[in-house]
Amino acid sequence: MIRPVSMLLPLALLSACNRGGDAPANNVDTLDAELLRGNAGDPAVTAALQDQIMVDPSLTGQSGNGAVRPADKPYSAAAPAADVASGSGAQAESLQSAPKPGACPSCKGGREALTLGELAAVQKAGNRQCAAKVAYSAAWANRLPAAFALHPDARLSEAAGTDADGCRMRVVSFTIAQPVDRMVDWYYTRARKGGYSAEHQAEGGQHVLGGTRGNAAYAVFLSPEGRGTSVDLIVDGG
Q1: Separation CA 213–CA 34 (nearest Å)
Q2: Are 136 and 171 in contact (CB under 8 A)?
Q3: pLDDT in tens, the chain (238 residues)
Q4: Phi and psi dihedrals of 230, rounded to 5?
Q5: Alpha-carbon distance 20 to 15, whole Å?
Q6: What is the pTM of this model?
Q7: Is 3.10.450 the CATH number for 105-236?
Q8: Domain coordinates in residue numbering, the chain
């Protein structure tokens, strides 16, 4: 029977290993002795091997300072302030209370508007010609009149505006972690300080503030959203 070379090779290696068993059983001791004989010619190595290991008791507590290990007590840190998510970025200011709301004929148009341009066009004091020319860009949120500058904690959703053909219209939509009533008072205060009139309307949970200053006009739609408020702001002129 002919055996392939591939089968004979492992057998030959196994035979060689078996022949190695004739050597002394204390191969490890023999290797250690050879290493010691080799190092005997090096005085530095010999001295290092024969010296006692010195331990400083005052440093034993520092052992493993760089090791990654669990802390010896639970992690603790100061709890975040209660107003972290509720407008803490805005400077504290005294707000005027908005008057009690009246009926809200503007609320229906605000709910039915599908775009910021449509929202601007449905306002009774709105400039339909300018509303039709608005272009969408987040940059318009930074170009609001000073009286209606974006709240520091606003989370912008969308913005539009136009300066074409004598128009000066700005429309922004955002959410904020503040209750509706506080935001109504905030915009009422801003409008009055800016010299605008302010009419407050409400229907259900939706509130509308609107007013004028000369030829300029504004309208703010505010609705509850989660634990905060959804805001749509329209400013024409100003």
Answers
A1: 102
A2: no
A3: 444 444 444 444 444 455 555 555 556 667 666 666 655 566 666 666 566 666 556 655 555 555 544 445 443 444 443 344 444 566 677 999 999 999 988 777 655 555 666 656 555 545 778 888 899 999 999 999 999 999 999 999 999 999 998 999 999 999 999 999 999 999 999 999 999 999 999 999 999 999 999 989 899 999 999 999 999 999 998 7
A4: -100, 130
A5: 9
A6: 0.59
A7: no
A8: 105-236
